[in-house]
Design brief:
- The chain has about 550 residues and is α/β, with parallel strands linked by helices.
- It has helices spanning about 35-45, 60-70, 95-105, 120-125, 130-145, 155-165, 165-175, 195-205, 225-235, 255-265, 275-280, 280-290, 315-320, 350-355, 365-380, 390-400, 465-480, 535-550, and strands spanning about 15-20, 50-55, 80-85, 110-115, 150-155, 180-185, 215-220, 240-245, 310, 340, 410-420, 445-455, 455-465, 490-500, 510-520, 525-530.
- α13 (about 315-320) packs across α14 (about 350-355).
- It is built from 18 helices and 16 strands.
- It has 4 domains: about 15-290, Aldolase class I (TIM Barrel), CATH 3.20.20; about 310-375, no CATH class; about 385-400 and about 485-554, Double Stranded RNA Binding Domain (2-Layer Sandwich), CATH 3.30.160.20; about 410-480, Double Stranded RNA Binding Domain, CATH 3.30.160.
Length: about 550
């Protein structure tokens, strides 16, 4: 049984403030609609995040609408926060449109950022240092008298502390004196290292006698240290952390809550969201990726698909005997799964573990049969197959090798695929019953497939936006009348990789095609290898359909 709670921390609580819906959306390739933001807010509430920063209502109509709709929802765990800035120079807080908008937003908490680095005060705002202090105090006081609880984000605090320590400290003191609920110390440029962060916090605590319970930490990941910097601030006494799910954010991203939360909960013994809710972390991580239309990072700590994946045979053997030999926590504690990968590095333990994972019994094999199976897998891997990335094809291979379960649902007799530029008028293609085509740039593909199914020969023609799409359409068209359940299945990803070969180069090289498919409950990946990309694609498509039918027990 793995145990990671530190003895010196007695389940002290940490506040978690998520800014995925605001700071996360500043990341390249990360964009959310109003409905997306509402869904993610619900997901974060379910996870148990304490504060959810919903956006900048004064900056755009979408965020204003979000708060209007979100105010009608009942959150169980999270408090919504509206974000904005301190007032403009030469303007009274009561006359500032940004602060007015924050004041009337239907939430109890607001966050405003202000300058704590004298460089920004002098060179960007072009005002005196005292004028900036007045801006902070007036802004916080206005929102407080409007009934709000205020997070003051001390922008560029650590840079400010490094260049003008006394002034940076004065900016956070003035915010607290004006009534801020918390002052958040920001490493806005993300340029600091953990030892520097901890030295600053220690000095605030012991030299400036500041109450660290009134402070928070907000770091960016430009040195790849945002998570470590956050923990470096927590250890001396900060108890409020900010970040985003999966570390989304501007430039290289924000501090990654998908790592921070389990580090604090499991490694340091703090009470963050609770260990039961922590089991939903992987689900939240992947839902945020899916809603934002981003590919999950496989090797992300804790939540990545590869976080508890074992490839080397020696590692797999040890994990089967004692998981803690190569795993720092139980995967289920964050909602993840242990996986065993199959490759040319695999040993018998990998094969046994992967077979068990897929529900295949190898217990009746003799030692010589196991060795023969392992050698066959290594032979296929050496020829370009990559079972590590294609569990679906591996299961089909194993079932066929063991002469179990998988049957021949159909037999290919022939196929032909053509791609044309400047085709005939689309009306001349209406006799082909296929999904509608975009016919972009006047290019289309046509596939002809002849297969044998249940003793009958099927000859079908279908169009597609590309040769693989056309082949897939023709194959499904022939099979759907025999296996209607294939209507549930869809192709979700397609990848091609050229495999180096000593005798073949360039366009004559072998290619590996990986196809990811899914239905209502599951997803699986299949592969094909050939000198011809269409042949490799057909192999992967056929395996994908076979996997689905086998899974359904047909």
């Amino acid at each position: 049984m793995m145990k990671h709670d530190s003895d010196y921390q007695k389940r002290e609580s940490i506040e978690v403030y998520d800014t995925t819906l605001r700071d996360g959306t500043q990341g390249e390739g990360f964009s959310l609609s109003i409905d997306d933001k509402l869904m993610i807010a619900d997901i974060l509430d379910e996870l148990g995040v304490h504060f959810v920063e919903g956006g900048f209502p004064a900056s755009n109509p979408k965020d204003r609408k979000f708060f209007e709709l979100a105010a009608k929802k009942r959150f169980k765990n999270s408090k919504l926060v509206a974000f904005g800035s301190t007032k403009r120079k030469n303007t009274a807080a009561k006359d500032d449109t940004n602060l007015q908008e924050l004041g009337k937003t239907l939430v109890d908490y607001t966050a405003i950022f202000g300058k704590s680095w004298d460089l920004h005060v002098k060179s960007v705002l072009k005002i005196s240092l005292n004028e900036n202090l007045d801006i902070i105090a007036d802004s916080v006081n206005f929102l407080k008298t409007s009934g709000k609880k205020i997070f003051f984000d001390a922008e560029h605090f650590f840079d400010g502390f490094k260049h003008n320590e006394e002034y940076a400290v004065n900016t956070i003191k003035i915010a607290l004196e004006a009534g801020a609920y918390k002052v958040v110390l920001c490493d806005t440029n993300g340029g600091f290292l953990p030892h520097e962060i901890s030295k600053v916090i220690e000095k605030l605590k012991y030299y400036y006698k500041m109450d660290l319970s009134m402070l928070g930490i907000h770091t960016h990941n430009d040195t790849d240290c945002a998570v470590a910097n956050t923990i470096a601030a927590i250890m001396p006494g900060i108890r409020h952390v900010q970040g985003t799910i999966n570390g989304y954010g501007e430039r290289t991203g924000n501090a990654n809550l998908s790592s921070i939360i389990p580090n604090l909960e499991l490694k340091l013994g703090f009470n963050v969201i609770g260990k039961e809710k922590l089991k939903g972390l992987v689900k939240v991580s992947r839902l945020v990726d899916e809603i934002s239309n981003n590919m999950p990072v496989k090797n992300m700590p804790y939540v990545g698909e590869s976080a508890f994946a074992h490839k080397a045979g020696m590692h797999a053997n040890a994990v089967l005997k004692n998981p803690s030999s190569y795993e720092h926590i139980e995967p289920i504690s964050v909602g993840n799964n242990r996986r065993f990968l199959i490759s040319d590095l695999s040993g018998k333990s990998n094969i046994e573990a992967k077979a068990k994972e897929l529900g295949i019994d190898l217990s009746k094999l003799t030692i010589s049969e196991e060795t023969e199976l392992l050698n066959r897998i290594k032979e296929l891997e050496g020829g370009g197959f990559d079972f590590e990335s294609a569990d679906g094809s591996f299961k089909i291979f194993m079932d066929k090798y063991l002469s179990k379960k998988t049957k021949n649902y159909f037999k290919l007799l022939a196929f032909r695929v053509n791609t044309e530029k400047n085709p005939l008028n689309s009306a001349n293609l209406s006799h082909i019953n296929s999904p509608p085509l975009s016919l972009e740039n006047n290019i289309f593909s046509e596939a002809v497939v002849m297969i044998e199914v249940q003793g009958k020969t099927e000859h079908t023609v279908a169009l597609g936006d590309g040769p693989v799409n056309a082949l897939d359409n023709a194959l499904r068209k022939a099979l759907i009348k025999f296996y209607p359940i294939l209507n549930e299945m869809r192709l979700t990803d397609f990848k091609v990789r050229v495999i180096s070969n000593r005798t073949k180069f360039g366009t004559a090289s072998y290619v590996r095609v990986l196809i990811e498919s899914s239905d209502k409950e599951d997803k699986w990946t299949t592969l094909g290898v050939s000198e011809n990309i269409i042949e490799a694609s057909y192999q992967a498509l056929a395996d994908s359909i076979t996997y689905k039918l086998n899974k359904e027990g047909i």
